[in-house]
Amino acid sequence: MCRWLAYSGSPINLEELLYKPANSLVMQSRHARLGVETTNGDGFGVGWYGSAPYPGLFHSTEPAWHDRNLRELSGQASSGRVFAHIRASTGSAVQQTNCHPFRHRRWLWMHNGLITDFPAVKRDLAMAVEPSLFPQIEGATDSELFFFLALTFGLEQDPHGAVSAAVGLIEDVGRQHGIDFPIQMTVATTDGDTTWAFRYSSEGRSRSLFHSTDVATLRAQYPDNPMLHALSDDARLIVSEPLGDLRGAWREVPESTCVVVHGGGEDLLEFSPAVV
Question: What are the distances in angstroms from CA 113 to CA 8, 51, 240?
Fold first, then answer.
């Protein structure tokens, strides 16, 4: 599968997220602790928001631990909202257009998991994509098609409802093809202002997902930790697996849950597929 992180808060150097933590995303690309695969070396991507009206993207097919350009970029770039993803392919080619995050206008999307037996259901799902959106699909992954299904169902107006509808369709089509457990997912999406993250699987045994706890509380508990003093009180992280072992810093996202992060606020909502 894959590993990813979604950060929001005061502007932070990308190096602080990707390289410096004890269990950083680059470390996870070689030695993931909680993933199905230990190694996630089939490319990576970083998306961030700056002064442009749309987010920047950097994709590479190199393993994250081996890419000098990622190291150079991370040492210079900073942002108040960052998506980063390391990839372990479930069958599609290792190419830049298959690397996450995916972008549509101001929106970013990344996914860990799979649409089960994707070749069998791909045509039916692709035919459900809004015709005006379909030409914008660049790669061959189930994750990107999932993104465009969510866009078709109104992601830009109602992210929770759109992802619910997309998952409902994926499950319906999968079961029509005799697939017992059509989807496995942790998904993150953002418009640059709010982040939505989802943990769900048809089997009820979803991939790992965690969210950070309140920074101000952690700062009081660990007054000598310099990293915590560098973060604003509204800083939040949602991650496939914790970036470190600081006690009390991480909470597991429950099964069938959507996490919504806006500013310093955080809500956990129930999530279930819509009946199609």
Answer: 23, 32, 11
pLDDT-derived band at 214 (thresholds 50, 70, 90) equals confident
**Count of C-beta atoms within a 10 Å radius of residue 98:** 22
Q: How many residues does the chain have?
A: 276
Distance, in Å, from the CA atom of 251 to the CA atom of 77, rounded to the nearest integer, reads 28
Asked if pLDDT for residue 222 goes beyond 70, the answer is: no
Entry pTM = 0.94
Helix (H) or strand (E) holding 183: strand 183-190
DSSP-assigned letters across all residues of 197-266: EEEEETTS-PPP-EEE--HHHHHHH-TT-HHHHHS-TT-EEEESS-SS--TTSEEEPPSSEEEEEETTEE
Chain segment 149-158, per-residue pLDDT in tens: 999 999 999 9
**CB of 157 closer than 8 Å to CB of 178:** no
Please state, in angstroms and rounded to a whole number, the distance separating the CA atoms of residues 74 and 83: 13
Closest to 143 measured CA to CA, from 201, 185, 190: 185
Q: CA-CA distance, 41 to 6, in Å (whole number)? A: 19
